[in-house]
Amino acid sequence: MSAILELLHARLATTALFYTFAMGVWALWLTVRGRGLDGGYLGALVIGEIVLVLQALLGIVQLWGAPGGAGAWWLHGLYGVLTALMWPFVYTFSRGREGAPRQEAIMFFATSFFLFLLLARAVETATPGGV
What we know:
Blueprint: H1 2-32, H2 39-65, H3 74-94, H4 101-126
């Protein structure tokens, strides 16, 4: 069972990497066009957040089942918690601003690429010897 969870956690990490990159490109495209976030982007954002939360929960389950493994994984876990909280934080920070839809797209562009780099770093800390 542990091997299945580990494989699923690794595959979701790859999915999250590609997804956050795609969300960043999409937000960049909206920014270049001078538009704000639309319903399609926000719906995709919810799907991405579900993937990130599921990824974090799988990591917690793995850590809980690991024999004494908490010491070496604290940084990896910190990255996981931070990635699950970034999009909701930016969403609550950016909503309700009058006349700033383009600024909202810029914030999600920057946040999505930051998440991409954060996830890449999380994958690197989880891999023995680095990537």
